[in-house]
Design goal:
Blueprint: E1 2-3, H1 14-26, H2 36-56, E2 63-66, H3 69-83, E3 90-94, H4 99-110, E4 114-118, H5 128-134, E5 139-143, H6 157-167, E6 172-176, E7 193-197, E8 208-212, H7 238-251, H8 255-273, E9 279-282, E10 291-296, H9 301-309, E11 313-314, H10 328-334, H11 337-340, E12 343-347, H12 354-376
Parallel strand pairs: 1-11, 3-4, 3-5, 5-6, 6-7
Antiparallel strand pairs: 2-8, 7-8, 9-10, 10-12
The structure holds pyridoxal-5'-phosphate.
Length: 377
């Protein structure tokens, strides 16, 4: 099998899995319980929380464990909007967000919030002048993805935050950092709120992280009992939390070395695929190398994906969560519905080998030739 879909999800690291199993076996108590088993579990949870807060240099009280990045995005957008309705009802998002952000925006629009979509340049970079123009006295929130999940376009969050705060110091900046964490350095201090998830960084599925600076005016959107995880009440999933802490620790080391290796693989694929007349590389100078997006002229991406699958090669059409739809991210880059209607995402990891890339390129050639022939018949 050649797995080239690491941006959809990653395999769990063995050490991470082991820490999950150990926490499950040795810490059966509910961290919310008052007896000694509960106290022991709470202590383990607090130590995992401390490890994570140390890595990101934030307060433990500023972190909430969620079920994944979708839930973190919901908390960020809905929690901030509800708490700041009196200040304003205007929200700005980029055109390179994950579909979950747009779904939440639709919900907020139905509640009476106004959503603006900031333009980007041809590289995918947020258009700073357009952002300034769209900022208003009633803008309560801006949400900009750190790394776009389909194309790998990376945004300069620190600069974006400076622009926003200069225009309106009361506007909060949220960033969906799901595709950035574990691939490039992330700094929670560049933003007021951030979302991340464990299953993109070799951690287990079912747990995410929501960072909220303590100064953000915020309304909880979930209510219940248990105070260990304030904005997501209920019994904290201790084994997932422990495993997530380990995954974050492992995924945030050796980033440069991994990125350089992945860049060489990416260059190799780009250089090879460039030769196909029917392939367009959806790539700009601000893309991270872990994600490589291409468009296929006249061949359906889904057909191509399944043909590669016959060789046990796994890639995505657009993001796994929006399969089958037109790629909004490729549209944002090229404003070309045809180019955005048949896209493949190849996503790489430090686990990818040169041999796998060579085999992928050989199979790509076979599939391309076969499907091009069928198209002509
Ligand atoms: N945000 C981005 C940028 C993503 O790439 C994804 C997953 O594809 C999500 C959010 C959703 O994450 P989760 O599956 O943890 O809810």
């Amino acid at each position: 099998m050649i797995y080239l879909d690491y941006s959809a999800t990653t395999p769990v690291n063995y050490d991470v899995l082991e820490s999950y199993i150990r926490a499950t076996k040795d810490f059966p108590g509910n961290p919310n319980s008052l007896h000694s088993l509960g106290v022991k579990s709470k202590a383990l949870m607090n130590s995992a929380l401390k490890q994570i807060s140390d890595i990101f240099n934030v307060l433990e009280s500023e972190l909430t464990f969620t079920s994944g990045a979708t839930m973190s995005n919901n908390l960020a957008l809905v929690g901030t909007s509800l708490a700041n309705m009196k200040q304003g009802n205007h929200i700005i998002v980029s055109k390179l967000e994950h579909p979950s952000i747009y779904a939440i925006c639709n919900y907020l629009e139905n509640l009476g919030f106004e959503i603006s979509y900031v333009n980007n340049d041809e590289d995918g970079l947020v258009d700073f002048d357009d952002l300034k123009k769209k900022m208003r006295a009633d803008t309560i929130l801006v949400s900009i993805c750190a790394v776009n999940s389909e194309t790998g376009v990376r945004q300069p969050l620190k600069m974006i935050r400076q622009i926003i705060k200069k225009e309106n110091p009361y506007t909060y900046l949220h960033s969906d950092m799901t595709q950035a964490l574990g691939k490039i350095p992330v700094n929670f201090h560049d933003v007021d709120m951030a979302s991340a998830t464990a299953h993109k960084i070799y951690g287990p599925k079912g747990i995410g992280l929501f960072y909220k600076n303590s100064r953000v005016k915020f309304s909880p959107i979930l209510y219940g009992s248990g105070h260990a995880n304030m904005l997501n009440p209920g019994t904290p999933p201790l084994p997932l939390i422990v495993a997530f802490a380990k995954a974050i620790r492992l995924a945030t080391t050796d980033l440069d070395k991994r990125e350089n290796f992945i860049r060489r693989l990416n260059d190799k694929i780009v250089n090879d695929l460039k030769k196909y007349e029917g392939v367009m590389i959806n790539h700009s100078k601000i893309c991270i190398p872990h994600i490589l997006n291409i468009s296929l002229k006249d061949i359906k991406a889904e057909t191509f994906l399944h043909a590669l699958e016959e060789y046990e090669i796994y890639v995505s059409t657009n993001t796994a969560c929006a399969s089958g739809e037109i790629s909004t991210s490729v549209m944002a880059l090229y404003d070309d519905p045809k180019r955005a209607s048949s896209t493949l995402r190849i996503s790489l990891s430090h686990l990818t080998t040169t041999d796998e890339v060579n085999k992928f390129l050989a199979c790509f050639k076979l599939v391309y030739e076969k499907l091009s022939l069928l198209k002509r018949e």
